[in-house]
Design a protein that fits this description.
About 50% of the residues lie in helices and about 15% in strands. It is α+β, with helices and mostly antiparallel strands. An eight-stranded mixed beta sheet has the order 8-22-21-20-9-17-19-18, with helices on both faces. Strands 1, 2, 3, 4, 5, 6 and 7 form a seven-stranded antiparallel beta sheet that branches. Strands 11-10-16-15-14-13-12 form a seven-stranded antiparallel beta sheet, with helices on both faces. Strand 20, helix 24 (about 620-625) and strand 21 form a beta-alpha-beta unit.
């Protein structure tokens, strides 16, 4: 044996002869490695598994979640409140942070399972030849040079150079996106062949869907193709979501406001001769009051309830922030196989020289094609069928035919082998009473003349060129078949030809059968919805350009904007960035190219969602703003994703986009309401303090007002339905704040109006000071109750929106409670409340309704954004 030699990795094994690869790896394919040699190589090469990255500790995850800017600000506010003796308010702020931090920790912990799923992508066991015997062994124990035996149903356990292929079909869609299984070959591929074109390799994680074969292990673990993909996943950092960036911006604004309040309040205190310590405490108290603890709660509740709503529509949310990011997506880079299509072969067409076969002839030809498949007779012996056999069987059963073959009828068969891409069978047909299908099959195949009791038929099926070479056809008929093949090549279907003959007669070509991976239901409509919503879609697939073009055309995409991966690889980043605005389909792509598209799109400021279902999609999914996996996809894709579509439907993804936009709208409405409330509250306190009132509002009054705020924003705004033009407006551009300077100015104006009006009422209204203060407070409460309902949309008039009964009921309940408080002695004492007469309520109603009525008029007449 060659066990003493040092085994070096084989460069580009796909471009070398199989025997040369085996020789380089020091193995005799007929014998395999010895037990001692396996042990030696295992020690040198390591285990056939992906290296597990160090897991982030729970403490580290908690620390990262707790150092979000808004969380830090609230922690500081809570601690300061406790230090100033406001124990209740401080503890409430700190306790409210616990579920927020916990949700972040849980979602981040689950996200780290992506690499763990990659480690499980290989098969747990493999059949290998060692010391001349075929044995079953754990896949983790494979070493370079092992001879692995393959059969239908196997998951390839490591990267193999194919050394024998007996009708061996490999489904490589998880790596290449190629939807059609390809026959493996022993002959080497060209040195420049990309991954999608390397037929002499069986890569780890792919599956054997037909035939038998064997190969020599060339790469294991982290050196395999799957391992190479895994290495790129740990180093990519996600950028902050639009709403996270918005909260960061609010933190900066609030810090400036807090500092300003400290300066104003302490300055006024010094001017009035108050002690320095009291002044400082008063300023810090005002600053704490300026920091609303509601925004993180608002975000957590709206996203949490939104995730539940999406789950009911088969969308599993693994990272809450992905919901709102989805609403800002302006580019979707999608896989084709399993995402736009069903990821299975179906019979798409049955043609002869006269055109599409009629129903009777179609069934007869399909049954003949099934009998021509050597794989179909092997299936009759209990072996799992290959994809072509399975699709033929489905088509026959759908047409009412019979797919059961009697192996006693098989006289001989010649399977697909290297250099001859066709299968030939010789079988006996019986014409029995009621077996009209068998008779039709025999006639269509040239197997027997009408009325014969039985006959022997030879059938051949395979690549059209090989079938035409087999058949002895007149020149004009041969030319007609060539023309038919060329005419149907552009359909993107995988064409095979069927030929038949009587025993010893000449071969006659009977039909072309086209196989295709059909579109999922509703895909064309979903893509149209994306276009209407201003979202570009780029389909990235490993399929042949003709197949990709056919799918693009069927889905309503422009088949003229297709580029092949080999051409794309020649473009520099500047060229690709420029072309990305027009690009619609990339065919024959590699995982690196899909990831590159994501990177360049994000560098251009776009918000990118990526869909996928295979190992090959994991790098792009990991780099995307929103990673969307298919529920039927690999565990690798699902664990790398933010969202998982349980029904694999692109239409469901567009529902998710709509929900994301609704969520962002509702968060914006909630923030508008929160900030306007705090502006009204703090504005009233500040100007009342400047005016000379010692304590314009009681802590209990402030607590009651904020209790309504929390209730209405966290639940009622989540229930707000999407606005009529939700999916007709363009996505919100990255970098454009949710609360623009113009919108903030209108928020300050709306809140400031309530604050000034309340102070004017308190100063000018006749009556005892306690009564005027309660009246002013009632103005603030009722104005905010009306404002919550009036700002259900910032652009659409409220009368054009469906009623939000929960929010309406909440607002009316708050006003009712405000009216009842003075009537209940214990509450009246606690709130220092006095009953209001009808004239008082008239003043309250005018002040509360005036901004809402103005907003309704402005929105109706001008269509402008306005805060009421």
């Amino acid at each position: 044996m060659m066990g003493a030699m040092t085994i070096e990795p084989v460069a580009a094994p796909y471009a070398l002869a199989a025997e040369d690869v085996a020789r380089s790896l020091g193995v005799d394919r007929a014998i395999g490695l010895s037990t001692a040699e396996v042990a030696r190589r295992a020690e040198a090469a390591g285990a056939n598994e992906l290296e597990a990255p160090p897991r982030t500790s729970p403490g580290r995850l908690v620390l990262e979640a707790a150092t979000e800017p808004f969380v830090i600000l609230l922690i500081a506010a809570g601690v300061l409140a406790i230090a100033l003796g406001e124990m209740r308010d401080g503890l409430l702020v700190l306790l409210a942070l616990i579920p927020i931090v916990a949700a972040d920790v849980v979602t981040e912990y689950r996200g780290e399972r992506a690499l763990a799923a990659l480690r499980e992508a290989s098969a747990p066991t493999a059949r290998v030849r060692r010391e001349g015997e075929a044995v079953e062994t754990a896949a983790v124990g494979l070493v370079p040079g092992d001879i692995v035996l393959l059969r239908a149903g196997d998951i390839v356990a490591a990267d193999l150079r194919v050394m024998r292929a007996d009708r061996l079909l490999i489904d490589r869609s998880i790596l290449t996106g190629e939807s059609v299984p390809e026959p493996a070959v022993v002959d080497p591929d060209p040195p420049e062949a990309p991954l999608v074109a390397r037929r002499s390799m069986a890569y780890g994680g792919t599956s054997v869907v037909g035939g038998r074969g064997e190969g020599v292990v060339t790469a294991i673990g982290s050196t395999s193709e799957v391992g190479r993909i895994a290495k790129g996943l740990g180093s990519v950092e996600r950028r902050r979501s639009p709403l996270q960036a918005e909260l960061d911006r609010l933190v900066r604004i609030l810090l400036i406001v807090a500092i300003g309040l400290i300066v104003i309040v302490t300055g006024l205190g010094f001017a009035r001769g108050a002690p320095a310590g009291a002044n400082l405490l008063a300023g810090i108290s005002a600053a704490i009051a300026a920091i609303p603890e509601e925004p993180p709660i608002l975000l957590a509740v709206i996203l949490g309830l939104g995730a539940y709503r999406l789950l009911r529509r088969n969308v599993l949310v693994r990272r809450l922030n992905a919901e709102e990011t989805l609403g800002s997506v302006d580019l979707i880079i999608t896989d084709k196989t399993g995402t736009l299509t069903r990821n299975r072969l179906d019979v798409a067409s049955v043609l002869d020289l006269a055109g599409p076969a009629d129903e009777t002839a179609r069934l007869a030809l399909l049954e003949a094609a099934l009998r021509a498949e050597d794989d179909a007779w092997v299936r009759a012996e209990g072996t799992a069928p290959g994809s072509f056999t399975a699709s033929l069987g489905r088509a026959i059963e759908a047409a009412g035919g019979v797919t059961v073959l009697d192996t006693a009828d098989l006289l001989a068969s010649e399977p697909v082998v290297d250099g001859r891409p066709l299968s030939i069978t010789r079988s006996r047909l019986h014409e029995e009473a009621g077996a009209g299908t068998a008779t039709a099959t025999a006639r269509s195949s040239g197997a027997a003349s009408a009325g014969s009791a039985d006959g022997v038929v030879e059938l051949a099926i395979g690549a059209p060129e090989a079938i035409l070479t087999l058949a002895d056809l007149p020149p004009d008929e041969r030319g007609a078949w060539h023309a038919l093949i060329e005419a149907n090549a552009a359909t993107g279907e995988r064409l095979v030809a069927l030929a038949g003959r009587r025993d010893g007669d000449r071969w006659a070509v009977r039909a072309l059968i086209g196989f295709a991976d059909p579109l999922r239901d509703g895909i064309r409509e979903a893509l149209q919805t994306a276009r209407t919503a201003g979202i570009s879609v780029v389909v990235v697939t490993g399929d042949h350009p003709l197949t990709a073009a056919a799918i693009a055309s069927a889905a309503g995409l422009d088949r003229d904007h297709i580029v092949v991966g080999e051409e794309l690889a020649t473009w520099d980043d500047a060229r690709l960035s420029a072309e990305l605005t027009r690009l619609q389909v990339v065919a024959r792509s590699t995982p690196d190219q899909k990831e590159r598209l994501v990177r360049l799109a994000r560098d251009a400021g776009r918000t990118v969602a990526v869909t996928g279902d295979g190992v090959n999609d994991a790098p792009a999914l990991h780099r995307a703003d929103v990673a969307v996996a298919m529920g039927s996809g690999t565990g690798v894709a699902k664990e790398a994703a933010d969202l998982v579509l349980g029904d694999d439907s692109f239409a469901t993804l567009m529902y998710g986009v709509s929900e994301g936009r609704r969520i962002v709208d509702n968060v914006q409405k909630g923030l508008v309401f929160l900030i306007s409330t705090h502006v009204a509250l703090l504005g009233f306190i500040l100007i009342a303090t400047i005016y000379g009132f010692g304590q314009p509002l009681l802590p209990l009054q402030i607590l009651w007002l904020e209790l309504f705020i929390d209730l209405s924003t966290s639940v009622a705004f989540e229930l707000e339905k999407g606005e009529p033009d939700l999916m007709r407006r363009p996505p919100r551009r990255r970098g454009v704040p949710l609360l623009t300077d113009e919108l903030l100015a209108r928020i300050v104006g709306a809140g400031g109006f309530s604050a000034v009006a309340a102070l004017v009422v308190m100063v000018t209204h006749p009556g005892p000071p306690e009564h005027t203060r309660w009246l002013a407070y009632t103005v603030l409460v009722c104005a905010q109750a009306v404002r919550a309902y009036a700002n259900r949309s910032l652009r659409v008039p409220i009368h054009r929106l469906p009623t939000n009964w929960f929010l309406l009921a909440a607002g009316l309940a708050v006003i009712a409670v405000q009216a009842v408080i003075p009537q209940v002695p214990i509450l009246a004492e606690a709130f220092r409340a006095t009953p209001l007469d009808p004239s008082d309520w008239t003043v309250v109603a005018v002040i509360a309704l005036a901004p809402a009525l103005l907003a309704e008029v402005v929105r109706t007449v001008t269509g402008r954004t306005w805060v009421g």
